[in-house]
Amino acid sequence: MAKKPTTKGREHDGVTRRGFIGTVGVGALGAATVGTRRAEAVPEITTPEAMVQIGLTINGRIHRLLVEPRWTLLFTLRERLGLTGTKVGCERGECGSCTVLIDGQPRYACMTLAVEAEGSQITTIEGLMDGEALGDVQQAFVNEDAFQCGFCTPGQIMAAEGLLQANPSPSNEEIRKGMSGNLCRCAAYHHIVRAVDSAADGRRKGDNR
Amino acid sequence: MSEESPYWIEGTVPETPTPAEYPQPWKTTSVIGRRMARVDAYERVSGTAVYPSDVILPGMLYGAILRCPHARARVLSVDTASSKAMPGVHAVITASTPEADIPWAYRRGPESRLFPTLCQHEGEAVAAVAAETPQQAADALRTIRVNYEILPHVADQETSSGPKSPKIWDGGNELPARPPYQRGDIDTGFSEADIVLERTFTTACEIHAPMETHGCVAQWDGDRLTLWESTQGVFAVQARVAEILGLPLSKVRIVGHYMGGGFGSKLQAGKYSIIAPMLARLTARPVKLFLSREENMLCVGNRPPSRMTLKAGVKKDGTLTALAMDTLSTPGAYAVSGYGLEDWQIRDLYTVPNVRTSSRFVYINAGPARPFRAPGHPQGSWALEQMMDDLAEALGMDPIAFRLKNIPSVSQARGGKPYTTTGLKECLTEGAATFNWETARSRPAQKSHLKRGVGMGACLWIAGGGGPPSTAIVKIFADGSVNLNLGASDIGTGTKSVMAMIVAEELGVDPHAIQIEHADTATTQFATPSGGSKTIPTESPAVREAAYAVRRRLIELAAEQHELNVEDLGLATGAVISKSDPTATFPITELEGLQKRGLVMGIGYRGPNPEDVAITPFAAQFCEVEVNTRTGEIGVLSFLGAHDSGRVMNRLTYDNQVFGGITMGIGLALTEERILDQATGKMVNANLHDYKIPTALDVPAEMTSLPIDPHDEQCNTTGAKGLGEPVTIPTAGAIANAVFHATGVRITQSPITPARFLEAQAAQAKEV
Ligand code: FES
Ligand code: FES
User: Fold this and answer.
1) Does ipTM surpass 0.90 in this model?
2) pTM > 0.80: yes or no
3) How far apart, in whole angstroms, are the C-alpha atoms of residue B640 and residue B619?
4) B34: how many CB neighbours lie within 10 A of its CB?
5) Distance of CA B543 from the midpoint of ligand 2 (Å)
6) I need a surface site. Which of A153, B298, B532, B679 has the fewest CB within 10 A?
7) Could you confirm whether domain A129-205 is CATH 1.10.150.120?
């Protein structure tokens, strides 16, 4: 359930972690004043001076930009850099739509601050492409029809990519476990498991990309 | 909701003209029926597909809605002074903003306002802001000061109309009573029965939870509004937005090329579809407004909870004599849509001469229901299929043999209209054979605490025949390339791919080379929303007609040019050919008529359905489960779906639908449940962590799709019936039956959580 937004951020330089969670996790809900209680104090205002300059290495390219410390990697990727292949489903670490690789590990971009990601290698769905050609996991998803609406799909593909990098020969059970952090409401799971299996197979045979 | 007013159509829709000439049913096909990768697969897996929530426009602001945190409260005052002064904030609107002080009418029941003073459920809209970043918008919401008078609420449909319940609407908490459905004489029916059983079944409230939340991006260009909206039907949104904002339809453009799932919850515009353009107008900037996951769980639809008391009578030989069902359900705080129809399976699935069903609906202080994949049907199936299992057990009959004894050839609920086709019998028999039902059913019980069992369920779906209106356009250009234009949305079912296959079948072109324009009110033709499993049966005949018209015209052009007989000509890849002279081929690119004109265009309309018949999809599903009788955990080991949805258009997307629908049904059976705290009326699991939709770990390792095609040449010119909904109807009942077969414990409440199973098992042990 909704956590109360904090007002303590004021005393600190920047936004507290609790304040951050409050903002991102709660969104607009439950934020109104309850009953006749006093309103929350005016939240801290991030001035341009409080923004930090960072360099993000995304798909092999360095992007230098100013971010608020509270901006998530997800927000920064999508709304600031226009890399909208990474999707937003919950902004609270529950659905996996925002999965990217950070130093080869599948991570929820909504649970990672942009400032935290500095110095890491970030790979998004756009980074799996070779020019206009699909990567092998992407192609396996096409062949096996491992999606319906396609909205969870970039996240699924990134999770699969991370899984295969860590475990080139996953068993069926390992695939299902490895993919279980990525929800698909269309429930294309059966085909997703097949796609990951066939991508793994392709890599073992050396015919990837 | 009733049979007479299908839920995907609000108000009247224009009829499309009846085609002058129908193409004959396909005898053989070369493209249709294949396993074909989607025509838009590349866009979807590469990340280049732009979903509405991906749209970024120059100068775009971010909108957010302040929502009532109480189940029921009166808004006494809203103070926006400090939020308006915050950096980055461009607009704050409330009920006292003149533009936003407008009524919000649902189709039925009590009226409300865009920002109501009386908030009737947690999550009602109270105010909205637009700011330069979503973070600033969230900050601004937090500083809006609202005084609420918290009012007594109702969180439970069971007590809603009781004497201690507060009246949440002036007219009381009961919706107007509807007359019961009756057929034959129910008392006679029960008196003729050798066995009469009665049980009460309940299903929990489910949330649609599409992965893309609801929302839109609004942009004004002078007096023209463009909305990129995550929707199942752009024209339905256009109609609503134009009406509320007082704009001509021609000035409202809705674009919905991609969308991240809806399952019935995105058939219509929402408050966000109005608030975003309002904010955009006030700020003279484009505005993106997408709901958070919590808002999505609370405000934009659900499958309402149900309680169904079902009584059944049967003769010793397995002939059903009577079925009676009383249902209690709730549309939530408003009567929008998506409630009712729990009794349709009872009325129509099995041959029963005497039927009586009645339904009561009461208001509670919770978000309004919306149609959710086969409204009412999975609930009714949960009751009926378990009852059929119980009756078979009481009769000592095999559940399949018992069902086979009661298969109708006419739609009893529609006054005995014959079905164009029914594959129900084949779904049962061929499904059972492929599943190895008899062997699995007769396996001896395990001694361990892990118990396996098999179960099944059957169903039909009320709609799924499709119908007018629909208009589609196929164009062939001078170089032979093809463009298809249709208004329908592809909600993930593969509509675009199937339509491309139809054009390819008629014109001999590569389906992947066809350029498709769709789901855009400015550039494509009117279509009803994609829902009700009617998109393929509705759109496919129109598309086929359009392609067929192009084909005819090309042949005519060749005949004119070469002075040939039209009857002797056909169309192959890229050329008009002679049937009598295999050497005579006339490449399309050399047809003078096409070259001079630059374009040949065919328009296809969806003609009416045949009269006095019922077009209905049928199914039977089979499953095996393993129950851990110590922990109550239930694992689904395998599933088979045998579906008669008419012709299989694309086997790959067809199977995907079957598996997806089954998986959603597993959610209903085992994990999904909206939990309202009775004391506060608030939803305690309004997130995807505590509201559990199935994950990759919850689906059976073994899944089989078995299409049953009865070759329906009467239903429409492509022979396809709907699939997307029947695939999720019998699933939960089949699982409950398998649990019973495994353990002897009958669970009548969904979802069958481990706790619920252990409780029922313990209660049963006490009885014995
Ligand atoms: S958006 Fe990050 S996990 Fe859902
Ligand atoms: S494909 Fe629609 S949510 Fe996964």
Assistant:
1) yes
2) yes
3) 11
4) 15
5) 26
6) B679
7) yes
